[in-house]
Write a structure and sequence with these properties.
CATH class of the largest domain: Alpha Beta
Oligomer: single chain
Strand content: 15-25%
Largest sheet: 6 strands, antiparallel
Number of strands: 13
Shape: globular
């Protein structure tokens, strides 16, 4: 197949940031972005690994940066399908940009549609829908800039984070708070830094897992579940997958050994998680693939933390990228994993070379 890999490189996001800031604040001194601002951008190594892996499966592959020229480039290339890993940088619909372009041009693409990507990016909207369908998730409150911060009656400890970020952006070790005063301070800080609403969630005390899911319709498959062991974090660190845990403490030279795949679960626990993530996948209209974070509460009930319909797919097994980790455990090397996502998406469009996920 002729595949265009649509991506947001770190350099591309830096250029987008520079353009946005210069247009928004033309006569003001630019403040440096936060430490984690470009965390969702893909490295050149990852982008090349994705394209080379797909080439190794016999595909004709090119790359397209998800910038202002993407519509023109995709219109000119007219691939059979777009393999979408583009995250974007600004706005609630930044992850929806490439899918919207593809739908406008009539080009098939992998992954979820614009609406699902936008909803899943916004943690509050996701939780509202989950709550409507009685899917367990932590109690929460959302605060906007300029409004009164009222947390009377809210149960602590709590986790505070920007409402619409991924890759642990805005979630630091000190995002776990134990009282109203500290919570208000963190909320104000994050409102200023990230310029978006802030969500406060009740901290769930139980074990945490991340679950890779792929397929569509009746052929949704849950890959081997990954457990997260926070006992391996530095002494005194809060038991969350913070920015420090993901990008600072976990290094190629000294990787954190915090993931276990397959997770050690009882048959009952596994069935509960499988049922929960499959229902969540369907309710939110996710397509082709997703990584869903799950945490047990104090009563042993699995709760949905977040959905990641554009999951990280770092190529190096030492990088602790959980979707590839689950796929490898299921018997899919990196290239086979990516090729299977293409097949799943192609089958959804009825393309000749598409086939359903292996059962």
């Amino acid at each position: 197949m002729r595949i265009a890999v649509a991506y947001s490189s770190k350099l591309g996001l830096q250029k987008e940031y520079g353009k946005n800031v210069s247009e928004e604040l033309p006569d003001q001194e630019e403040e440096p972005p936060s430490l984690d601002f470009f965390a969702e951008g893909d490295s050149e190594e990852t982008i090349n690994a994705v394209m080379n892996a797909l080439r190794s499966k016999g595909h004709d592959v090119c790359g397209v940066e998800a910038d202002d020229k993407a519509p023109e480039n995709l219109s000119r290339i007219r691939p059979d399908i777009v393999f979408n890993i583009a995250e974007g940088l600004f706005g609630d619909f930044r992850e929806s940009y490439i899918p919207m372009v593809c739908e406008r041009l009539g080009i098939p693409y992998s992954g979820s549609g614009p609406l699902t990507l936008a909803i899943c990016l916004n943690k509050a909207r996701t939780k509202e829908i989950l709550s409507y369908y009685s899917i367990p998730n932590a109690k929460f409150a959302t605060f906007h800039a300029g409004e009164e911060i009222n947390l009377e009656g809210f149960k602590f400890p709590a986790v505070i984070k920007p409402v619409a970020e991924g890759s642990s952006k805005g979630i630091f070790d000190d995002s776990v708070v134990h009282d109203i005063g500290t919570a208000k301070k963190r909320i104000v800080e994050k409102l200023k830094i990230y310029r978006q609403p802030v969500i406060v969630e009740e901290f769930l005390e139980g074990r945490e897992f991340t679950v890779a899911v792929w397929g569509n319709g009746e052929n949704i498959e849950v890959l081997p579940i990954v457990a997260i062991n926070y006992d391996e974090l530095p002494e005194g660190a809060h038991k969350i997958y913070s920015y420090e845990a993901k990008w600072v403490w976990d290094t190629p030279e000294k990787p954190l050994d915090i993931f276990q795949c397959p997770a050690k679960l009882s048959s009952k626990e596994k069935k509960l998680i499988d049922s929960l993530v499959k229902r969540t996948f369907t309710v939110l209209g996710v397509r082709d693939l997703c990584r869903i974070d799950v945490r047990f509460d104090s009563n042993g009930v699995p709760n949905i933390l977040e959905l990641n319909p554009l999951p990280g797919i770092l190529p190096d097994p030492e990088d602790n990228s959980c979707f590839p980790k689950a796929a490898r455990t299921a018997g899919y090397p990196y290239a086979d994993m990516l090729d299977n996502v293409v097949k799943i998406a192609a089958a959804r469009y009825g393309l000749k070379k598409g086939c359903a996920v292996k059962q």
